[in-house]
Fold this protein.
Amino acid sequence: MILTTTESVPGKKVSKILGVVFGSCVKTKHLGKDLRASLRTLVGGEVRGYTDMMEESKRIATQRLIEQAEKLGADAVIGLRYTTAMTMRGAAEILAFGTAVKLEQE
């Protein structure tokens, strides 16, 4: 599966647009890690627990997008984008979305 943030795949021609596909993931951190993250705001620096949580969420959301595109018979997802939202304190959602397409065969 080709994933690209561009509106086309270099050297390939889109033969059919199959539709918009999505993948999302909402993750939370447990209270202990959330308290440690709150303390980090006093001294500054990266909150590694949240960085790891967001990376894992992005990976899961991307995988779900790929699965949805494969169900449509897509060869690629173009215009791939990510967005985030805080759904509640200590919980974040990552949404991956793009356009599933069929590419012309060479």
Summary: DSSP finds two helices and four strands in the chain.
